[in-house]
Amino acid sequence: VSRVKMVLKKVSLPYISATHLLGYRPITSMNDIDTLISNNALWSKMLVEEDPGFFEKLSQTQKPRFLWIGCSDSRVPAERLTGLEPGELFVHRNVANLVIHTDLNCLSVMQFAIDMLKVKHIMVVGHYGCGGVRAAMNDLRIGIVDNWIRHVKDVRNSHLDWLNTVPEGPLRYDALCELNVLQQCFNVCQTTMVEDAWARGQEIVVHGWVYGIQNGLINDLRMSVKSSADVVPAYEKAVAQVRERYA
Ligand code: CO
User: Fold this and answer.
1) How close is the Cα of 36 to the center of ligand 1, in Å?
2) Residues with catalytic roles
3) Per the CB 3.0–4.6 Å rule, which of 8, 12, 82, 132 could disulfide with 96?
4) For 158-217, what is each residue's pLDDT tens digit?
């Protein structure tokens, strides 16, 4: 972000997008793959011009302080929306940002992030307008993913009586997006990796966020958990706050 601002400042043409100034070409259906490759060459050149040792330094090691567990949705660009650079964010994404007790993929990412990289923060990041959450709310049939989304339906079912008091439609989807994030946050805290890390005194804070694809802003659900003893009270408090907001 700062780099983009610098470029804009230099030429003082704020109405032209930074990617344009750098010579990026827009994607059209005729040249899309070639454009990705040529845009990549420009991106690499831009970073090297600013810091000649950039990629060399990065290739030695990674020391990200954050693990992002988010939805696969293309409208949620994790690094861009947090202003982070390569090397600063370890990422796991799947449909509806789920942390399932037996998902070896997610658990492996978490173990590497916690034990090897020693990340300080883990954020579960949902987003409003999530297709997976909406499908779960409405029992939509999509395909194989229905079996995955079953986990969101479990969240829906455990809050069903309350959800039915929220007006049907977007508001109810938003509420389920938030409750789903809180449940997945809870699941992160219950993994053996996080429990063991806390038990040995390793500092990790688990956060629950929901990103607004309609305004680009993160809504912090204020379930920030630092220890095993915090998990249940933090979860219950955050759920109560969701209910208050939608009342
Ligand atoms: Co989504």
Assistant:
1) 24
2) 71, 73, 75, 127, 130
3) 132
4) 999 999 999 999 999 999 999 999 999 999 999 999 999 999 999 999 999 999 999 999
